[in-house]
Design brief:
The protein is an all-alpha fold. It has one domain. It is built from one helix and no strands.
Length: 65
């Protein structure tokens, strides 16, 4: 009788460990995706800012020159 309860308890513990590992993996993937999107946004934002600054400097140079 105890052996079957022990087997069930071990099986349940193993299921919980697998589920916890799956949960951690999902969280890591979501976090990586979030950081990748943030990095892409920051890179794009920096590029737009640089273009805008270059255009402003070119316009100012044309006005002065």
């Amino acid at each position: 009788m105890y052996a079957s309860y022990e087997a069930l308890a071990r099986e349940r513990t193993q299921e919980q460990l697998v589920e916890a590992a799956r949960y951690r993996l999902c969280r890591q993937v979501a976090s990586a995706r979030r950081w990748r999107r943030l990095a892409a946004y920051s890179t794009g934002r920096a590029a737009r800012s640089e273009r805008r600054l270059a255009e402003q400097l070119e316009t100012e140079y044309q006005l002065v020159g």
